[in-house]
# Entry
Amino acid sequence: MMIYVGADYRGFEKKNQLLEFLAKNNFEVTDLGAYEYNEGDDFNDSAVAVAKAVRENRGSFGILICDSAHGMTIQANRFKGIRAAHCGSAESAKLAREHDDANVLCLSAHFMDEDKIQEITKAFLETNFENLERRVRRINRLDEREDYD
# Structure
């Protein structure tokens, strides 16, 4: 599985730590920025890049890291087919995958240390979607809006 990772300046250091963790655990990873620490950059750029990559590559996942994870989550969810979940625990990440087939994990650099980020990421990537009719029906309804790009 391909994993696309992005962060703004607030998540830059933790993104780089996560990239090392993912590579060490034999995940195929693409870094979509930020590529250097640039205080004051916008979270939108990395969120858009990751959301588009996940949307264009079925079966892939995205991971976004910013200060609170709220902005990244909101931005990524603007894209049809993206189900971004802000997860603060391994259990939350498992439920996002099992119940909602989340394909983008959003993490907070402010509220999580490196170990917590790794624990949540591992849970997210190792959990499969429970392909139940009611869950599929609900997920399909997420893209009912008409004003998507």
Remarks:
- The mean pLDDT is 95.
- The longest helix spans residues 43-56.
- The first strand starts at residue 2 and ends at 7.
